[in-house]
Amino acid sequence: MKRFTQGSTMLILLATCFLSCKPTKEEATPIPEYVVNVTLVTQENAPALQSYAHGVNGTDWLLFAGRTNRINDDGGLHDLNANYSNTSFLPLSYNEDIFVYNVDTDVVSALSFNEMVSEISSFTPATGSTDSTAIVALLPKVVAALKANGTVFRSTNPLVMQENDYMYLAGGYGTPLDQTDNGNAYQTFNQVARINVPSMIKVINSDLGSLTLTDWQNLVAFGSNDKLVSTGGEMFKIGNTFYLAGGHNFGSTAPAASQGQQYVDAVYPFTMSVSTTNPFALDITVSAPITDVSTTIGTPAADATSKFRRRDGPIVPALYMDASNKLTEGLAFYGGVFQPDSVVTLNIKNKEGNDSTVSYLRAWNTAIYVTPSLTTNYTIDSDYNQKNFNVYACADFELYDAVSGTVSTFLMGGIGDGTYQGPQTLSPFTNSLTQVRYDLSTGKSTPKVIDQNIFGSSSFYGAETEFIFNSKQAISFMSVNGDATEVINADATFQEGKGFDLGFIYGGIEAFENTPGTFGRGKSAASSKIWKVTVTKNTVNN
Fold first, then answer.
1. Closest among 454, 467, 363 to 416, alpha carbons compared
2. Most exposed: 28, 125, 339, 501, by fewest CB within 10 Å?
3. What is 260-292 written as a DSSP string?
4. Secondary structure of the chain: what % helix, strand, coil (to 5)?
5. CB of 156 within 8 A of CB of 94?
6. What is the pLDDT of residues 387-401, one digit of tens each?
7. Gap between the Cα atoms of 525 and 443, Å rounded
8. Cβ neighbours of residue 94 closer than 8 Å, sequence gap 6 or more
């Protein structure tokens, strides 16, 4: 997930007012309402990417990994009826390039991973420049670290977040760089990476001469941990602790599809730091998982019972109240796939005249609230029902409204149009916009579909997209206990009746029909589209 700290603002006074000054039910309470509009950005040069990694430095976006289109729209939805390695995820669809795209100027630069390594290998600092001797001595170590961890830049659907200048990645799915065509090599990775975004952008823009010794020392660092094997989950940071949330593991030996998959079934807290002996290595410590199953997590038995058995769904930053009625950070699962197989009796008769049954997979419509700082570190909200809307990973943003005492999550497009899944199918793709409003006083969430076609299109967007904040806007984020969160301070950010260009929806899957079933012409593809997201605050009486 995205995480940016610029413009972060404490909201202790507003939170206190909400707790002590809330009007009585007899009073008419003016409640802010937030209208979301989406506008297609005119651009020609953004790469077509889905399930990718991204970092942001101003108006420059660092983009790599994921899948793309090379031949006949071979990105898009993987083939639901094929092997989950080299026939379902075509080798040609893997993105081999690292891009720098400027959303303001529509200018793109790109290097393949091998080209990037080659440029660094052949770079020589100007004679007599500051620290030139030390840089020359360091460059072979940079190259060695990159070569040993190249799959970070070529995996699909890794877990990603950013804090200040650094982006962090974990997991992802794919093959070693030299085994793309080997179906037996497909795996879910245990890799973890820290990348300095401004410095990596300079590398891709072939501006190596501007990097200082410190820049080179901080460019990349890598580690691994077998408890952090995940694709299709999310990663967060609260305080000094990272959290790997959800996702699944296709296995580390193959054929992956024949092995079946195992879900993470948990949220894993972990810490990482750069090694004191090697600036390109990470020391990683994983703590006890937050989960509803025993230590058998990651097994078929756990998959059959855990309500954390979720991947590729909206997992979002959240705020909660502690026992002292003070705000605390956490995260929330809204939707996700898949529940364990279920045998369902259809309301029809087969040709023999008997009731017909079929085994099929269902999305999750309950919510999970994860509260690491509280005694009860998770709550499953079984009363919550998302009604199969926007249950798949899609662009999202969150905002805290002090007047209503709520945190709203906006889910934009993706998969889940309100109909339930049937045999061998996904719930249809959707362009709907769903607002999930969490009430801090009751601890309950309420979903509402507020637009059936936010993209205004006969094609479908949103699945595996990312929401990227507009760096040119003064966005205030909530701060809790001195820690900047990913939740927008709505009161400090939006003005009544005035549209605010909050950010962009970029990339993802473009589905040309609502149940494409696969990739290819007329079915689905990786998207290069960018949509501007504008939020307008209005006030209505409750």
1. 363
2. 28
3. --EE--SEEEEEEEE-SS-TTBEEEEE---B-S
4. 15, 40, 45
5. yes
6. 999 999 999 999 999
7. 39
8. 67, 68, 154, 156, 174, 180
Start-to-end Cα distance in the chain:
33
Question: Can you tell me the distance from the alpha carbon of 273 to that of 282, in angstroms, rounded to the nearest whole number?
Answer: 5
The residues, any chain, with a CB within 8 Å of residue 375's CB and separated by 6 or more, are none
**Residue carrying the six token digits 């994983």:** 286
For 463-518, the three-class secondary structure string (H helix, E strand, C coil) is ECCEEEECCCCCCCEEEECCEEEEEEEHHHHCCECCEEEEEEEECCEEECCCCCCC
Cα–Cα nearest to 412, from 402, 427, 398: 398
Task: Give the span between the Cα atoms of 28 and 456, in whole angstroms.
Answer: 35
Which of 177, 276, 268, 277 shows the shortest CA–CA distance to 229? 268
Angle between helices 132-148 and 113-122 (to 10 degrees): 160
Query: What is d(CA 314, CA 396) in angstroms, rounded to the nearest whole number?
Result: 8
Question: Is residue 515 a contact partner of residue 426, using CB atoms and an 8 Å limit?
Answer: yes
In this predicted structure, the answer to whether residue 19 has a pLDDT above a threshold of 90 is: no
Per the CB < 8 A criterion, the answer to whether 228 and 162 are in contact is: no
**Distance separating alpha carbons of residues 88 and 272, to the nearest angstrom:** 34
Give the C-alpha separation, 81 to 87, whole Å: 9
Token pair in block for residue 394: 């899609």
0.85 exceeded by the pTM? yes
Residue 501, strand partner residues: 534
Give the DSSP H or E segment for 87.
Answer: none
In terms of Cα–Cα distance, which of 374, 335, 397, 367 is closest to 480?
A: 374
The predicted-structure confidence for 231-258, as pLDDT tens digits, reads as follows 999 999 999 999 999 999 986 443 333 4
Q: Which one, of 290, 309, 304, 296, lies nearest residue 248 by Cα?
A: 309
The phi and psi torsions of 20 (rounded to 5 degrees) equal: -105, -15
Nearest to 21 by CA among 328, 399, 403, 321: 403
Torsion of CA 465, 471, 476, 477, to 10 degrees: 40
Neighbours of 517 (CB within 10 A): 16
Nearest to 538, CA basis, from 390, 404, 434: 404
Query: β-pairing, 191-196 with 166-170?
Result: antiparallel
